[in-house]
Amino acid sequence: MPRADAHLHLFADGYPGRYGRSPAGGDEFAVYQTLRREHDIDRALVVGYEGAPEFAGNNSHLARLAAEHDWIAPLAYLPATGTDRRGLDRLRSAGFAGVAAYLPDPASADAFADWAATAGGSLNDAAAVVSLNATPEAAGRLGRALAALDGCAVLFSHLGLPGRHAAVPTPEGVAGRLAPLTDLARLPHVGVKVSGLYAVSDPADAYPHAAARPFVDLLLDRFGPARLYWGSDFSPSLDHVSFAQTLNPVGLDGLSAAEAADVHGGNLRRALGRR
């Protein structure tokens, strides 16, 4: 089955990982090239991150890679406060397919919402992909801002970051935890990445991450397979699981062949095709 990866990272010096070196075991770009050929990955949404000093310059690195490899759709890292119109124009000219923001709390979500209120026109005109690493506490503050980004594909990463769970949570607990995110299912341009399941498990290496299944079940019910997007979370995921173990996340085994093809690539290709 051809795939399109909705969430990965590529750092010039490698992701430092839990052991102080890239868990990919070598040059991350070269390793991912091998993996995508082996697993028939024809498109990839590469998510920028510059939120710590060691990751400075990641946007420029991704722009260089995307200029040379047409399978890469890069997303530029932005702080929660965003950038001005000229900054967005520069990113678009550099080949970025959209932007990525990291919103761990309500304050950062409020800052992003304020910025989106002024930048929404430019993002919509570009049919940008907007990737959000946002907790439920942050997602609950974004409804009005995301409603205005109706020309974009807005994708929440890692099942909406519900937190770690040592035991399989109850459906009631899952529904309560993700309520701020599932409330956004009313917006047809909002979707969720089935990625980073290790971040729901305690311990993180408890593959196949049974604690994540009820979250996937809920997201399938509320968003449907047309708005879920598989992502590998390369290379951070390799601190906890193998790349092969990221390919078939728990909870997707009941999909039809057509639905699985959408979640594992078709949905992302269509989102990028709108540009």
Automatic annotation (TrEMBL):
Record's superkingdom?
A: Bacteria
Domain (Amidohydrolase-related) ranges: 5-273
Pfam families for the chain = Amidohydro_2
SUPFAM superfamilies per UniProt: Metallo-dependent hydrolases
Q: Note the InterPro entries from the entry.
A: Amidohydro-rel, Metal_Hydrolase, Metallo-dep_Lactonases
Family to which the UniProt record says this protein belongs: Belongs to the metallo-dependent hydrolases superfamily.
The identity of this protein, by name, is Amidohydrolase family protein
Species in which this protein is naturally found: Micromonospora rubida
